Structure formats: C-alpha cells, structure tokens
Amino acid sequence: MTPTAFPARIHVLLARRAPVGVVIRRGPSKRVCTVLWDRTADAFRLGQWLHGRVYERRSDVSPDGTHLIYFAMDGHWDGEAGGSWTAISRVPYLKALTLLAKGDCWHGGGLFTGGGRYWLNDGCGHASIRESHEVVRDLKYQPDRHFGGECPGVYYARLLRDGWTLIRREAIGRWKAMSVFEKPAPGGWTLRKLAHEEVGAPPGKGCYWDEHELDGPGGRISCPDWEWAEVDGDRLAWAAAGKLFGGRPGEGGIAASAELHDFNGMEFEAIAAPY
User: Fold this and answer.
1) Predicted TM-score (pTM) above 0.90
2) Which stretches of the chain are DSSP H helices?
3) What are the residue ranges spanned by the domains of the chain?
4) CB within 8 A of 198, min separation 6: which ones?
5) Whose CA is closest to 182, among 155, 145, 213, 148?
6) Which domain of life is it from (predicted)?
7) How confident is the model at residue 11, as a pLDDT?
8) How far apart are CA 82 and CA 68, in angstroms?
9) SS3 at position 187
10) Which stretches does DSSP call E strand in 62-139?
C-alpha cells in the first residue's frame, strides 16, 4: 500500500522588532528545513536542512531576527549531542553557535527574553557542548504561567508574550485537551487559535496541532485548515496545505488574499552555514 502523502507542515516564528520571519518546514516526517522570510518584500531564502525533527513549538526567534533557538532530535543517541539537543544559531541556519546536549525529549528549547538573552527550558538538565558569546542565558526569567515541560510549556508562553490572550483550557477526554487563545486583528476582527493537545491526533497532524477561527463584522469564520496564523502588521498571515498566505480582513472576511510561497515539493539538500 502506498503511504498517504500529506502537504508540508508549516510553522512560522516572527521577530518582534524586525520584518523577519523563520519558516520551519517539515516533510517527510524526518526531514525539516528553515527558510528566511523577508516580510517587507515577501521574499524567501532557504537556510538549512536537518535529517531529524525540529520541535517548532519549543523554538523562538530573537526580537531583532538575528538568532534562532530550537530543540531538535535526530535519534543518534550515541552522538555528540546525545540524540536530542537545544541549539542557538544565526537566522536562517541551524548550525549551532550554542549547543546543549539533552539526550531525551523532556523539556528542551526556550525563548528569547530580549536582546541576546534567552531562557532555557531546562527541566531535567542539558550538558553544555559549546556556548557562544553572542547570546547569554537569562537565569532570572521564568514564564508567568506553567504549562508543563513539553511543547505547550514554551509555545503557550511565547503566545502570551506576543500578545495572545488565553481564554480557556478544556479537558475533552482522556489524553485530549484544547487551549483557546485570541488576538485582536485588523478591521475589528479577532483571530482565535484552537490549540489541540492529544494522543491519537488526526492523520497528518502531530500530538500538538492548531486550527483557527475569525470572529468579527462578518460573523464567525471557521478556518480548520490554517495550521498556523498570526497578525502581521495590518494583515493576517496563515499557513495551509503547505503554503503561506497573506490577506487583509474586510467586512465580509478576508479580502485580497494572496499566496506568498509554496513550500511543497522541496527536497533535502546539504547546505553549509556561512559561519
């Protein structure tokens, strides 16, 4: 039987003080790459590929768009990084300036707290392989709310930092929950994020996955195919079916939407970082 082919999975990190984004593109499941997004020109440039997994919900981009912190796993448990690691690199590459070996998939990753400072989602501990003077660990910061050590512990803290409001958390069943976030959007609309946490997720989705809704002058619009969405200045940006889109909300919904980039069909290639 031929395996079902799914579109590329897309998650985007937006710099808070620069018109820069980092697209984390996954597919097939053990291939992932980073792509630089120039949000002024809507131009895209490939960073690097990894034969493994980057946990996009435990990742962040620095406010000025120059550094990336991410948690990754390649399963090489006897390797230098112990099979999984937290790294800090220069955008849009994955080559580690700071490399912190983990050896399991509990905790890991982190957030930038400002400038060149970062919070490490340390949990059971990392082993330092090398550290860069370009960034400094922030030992004083702790997220205002605790959402566990895995993806929500970093992802939900990032959403709250970036202007989202947590409306409610729902326990839907055994090993199945949903957290609802909202953010004001242009044109009097509200962007709603339905963040799912479950074992036995629908085909083509991981145990953590999102869908979205718009609520505003035109009523409520369900956007179940939007796997990522964010307010980007005076427009909305969203990912669906392996593509990135942009558009401005009008009275009846999204007006003048455009496909910004198609990430399907990309194939692994070895790329050396220029540092």
Assistant:
1) yes
2) 151-161
3) 9-262
4) 172, 175, 176, 177, 207
5) 213
6) Bacteria
7) 98
8) 20
9) helix
10) 67-73, 84-90, 98-101, 110-114, 117-120, 127-130, 136-137
